[in-house]
Amino acid sequence: MLKHSVLLGSAALLMAATTASALDLDDVAIQSGKLVITGRTDKPKQPVELLNSGDKTQSSSSRRFRLSLSYQPETCKLDLKVGDEVLKDLLVANCAPRGPKGEPGAKGEPGPRGEAGPKGEPGAKGEPGAKGDSGPRGDAGPKGDTGAKGEPGPKGDTGPQGEPGPKG
Q1: β-strand pairing of 77-82 with 47-50
Q2: Which of 12, 41, 117, 149 is most buried as measured by Cβ atoms within 10 A of its Cβ?
Q3: 82 exposed, middle or buried (CB, 10 Å; 0-12, 13-18, 19+)?
Q4: Residue 160, Cα to own-chain centre: how many angstroms?
């Protein structure tokens, strides 16, 4: 496997060296799950773009550059643009084309129940409901205390004359 990776890396470097003089590549490889591209440009502060993903960087004043991306090309080939030149079909070391998607596995057991979250805010006040039926009549309450004596009322009108009594 190591021999295969070295061969792919060497092929990429050979292709880059013979294709264009604007770029000297040190690494074009998958390292720890990331695509790593390092090298030197022909001029300082020169833009370098990975055309497959659109990611860009710029070489330093010493003409060095580095791209480290969470990107793996599907075909293990990529295209770089340096200044106005485009380098096509650079091979990526430690890369293999992806196989077809596998079947989903069996559903696992549910995990333990988590703790309840914090209590939520109370909701908005609702509309009042319809008036309900009257309840049953309750028992009479205990007799209250006698109140204070009231003032005498005003004198009333004289009543009609009564009939004469029996003769004596």
Answers
A1: antiparallel
A2: 12
A3: buried
A4: 99
